[in-house]
Design brief:
The chain is α+β, with helices and mostly antiparallel strands and 165 residues long. It has a single domain, classed as Gcn5-related N-acetyltransferase (GNAT) (Aminopeptidase). It contains four helices and seven strands, in the order βααβββαβαββ. It has a seven-stranded mixed beta sheet. A hairpin with a 2-residue loop joins β2 and β3. The structure holds coenzyme A (COA). Coenzyme A binds next to β4, α3 and α4. The site of coenzyme A (COA) has 21 residues, from β4, α3 and α4.
Length: 165
């Protein structure tokens, strides 16, 4: 497996992260620049990045104020896909956080395979839940006994523009 160095976001990563977002998602799916810019403030968002030969190969964007911690975006530069970069990012997050969750478009089979391979479990949800008709929710707990815990009650409905990945 190619070696990816996973580390926490640093301000100089911002431009490369936005570029990876741009080449990885359609214009409707892309987050506004301001969301990534908020990584420079003391807000709820954090990012982990994967480096290869000194360049950014991928990133994961997290909201650490939610419980479980929500992965709001993960993306890998096209030329680095299927080489273990996404797995390396997720494995790092799984070390750091006991409980993770994410929303993924139902047709994103590459991403869904990756999450399932790493032990994320799809929640049974009804169509009225957050993005229920279009997205699956996956969770991963270090302690698997709480896998089917309901989502926190005060979570506002979100869209790719402010909540999904
Ligand atoms: C989803 C995404 C982040 C996955 O990242 P990735 O770096 O390709 O993920 P990995 O390489 O770890 O795993 C992908 C596959 O490559 C395989 N793989 C891992 N290391 C490998 C290697 N060294 N050589 C060949 N294949 C390898 C994995 O086994 C996996 O196979 P599978 O699809 O049969 O399970 C990436 O496809 C992406 O950026 N997609 C666009 C944005 C997106 O959809 N993000 C997710 C939104 S929910």
């Amino acid at each position: 497996m190619r070696n990816y160095r996973i580390r926490a976001f640093e301000p100089h990563d911002l431009k490369a992260i936005k570029e990876i977002d741009r080449v990885s998602f359609s214009s409707e799916q892309q987050y506004p620049d301001e969301l990534y810019d908020s990584l420079l403030t003391d807000g709820p968002l954090r990012a982990a990045v994967a480096e290869s030969a000194g360049a950014l190969a991928g990133y994961a964007l997290l909201d650490i104020k939610t419980q479980p911690v929500r992965i709001r975006s993960i993306a890998v530069v096209p030329g680095h896909r299927n080489k273990g970069c996404g797995s390396a990012l997720l494995l790092d997050l799984m070390e750091q956080y006991d409980a993770l969750e994410l929303l993924v478009e139902k047709g994103n089979t590459a991403a869904i395979r990756l999450y399932e391979r790493l032990g994320f479990v799809r929640l049974e949800r009804d169509e009225n839940s957050e993005l229920g008709p279009t997205h699956h929710m996956f969770r991963r707990f270090k302690n698997a006994s709480c896998l089917n815990e309901p989502p926190p009650p005060n979570r506002a409905a979100t869209s790719r523009a402010d909540g999904t990945i």
